[in-house]
Amino acid sequence: MIERISPNSNKSFMGIFDGKELVGMVSFHKEIGEKERHKGDIYGMFIHEDYQGKGLGKLLLSTLINKVKKDYPDLEQIRLSVVSNNTLGRKLYSNLGFEKYGVEINALKEGDEYFDEDLMVLFLK
């Protein structure tokens, strides 16, 4: 079951549940500045490892995309970033129409190790 957890004027959080247990989530933020209000960003896409590989990520993200397209008719593009070595995540996003447009080098740091992130966009118009 997918639920919209907390909508407001420019932010939305959605979760996917197994009964009462939250097993996946995604958040969306629509830009509100005059020159950027045609864009929005996906943050915090997560599916619990026990539920991965079952199509829940695709279901959750597809539901979010359809919802924000309806809620924000002026939205032209949705952006996200994904750790470059996250093969499954990159494949999911590509299969949903996202295109890679760049790489942020050393975007994340854990201890002494750095991770690059692929920057991706889904053009709606």
From TrEMBL:
Show the InterPro entries listed in the entry. Answer: Acyl_CoA_acyltransferase, GNAT_dom, MshD_Acetyltransferase
**Name of the featured protein:** GNAT family N-acetyltransferase
Per its record, what are the GO molecular function terms?
acyltransferase activity, transferring groups other than amino-acyl groups
Highest rank taxon of the organism: Bacteria
Q: Which organism is it from?
A: Lactococcus lactis
Under Gene3D superfamilies, the record lists: 3.40.630.30
**Pfam families per record:** Acetyltransf_1 (PF00583)
Q: Which residues form the N-acetyltransferase domain?
A: 1-125
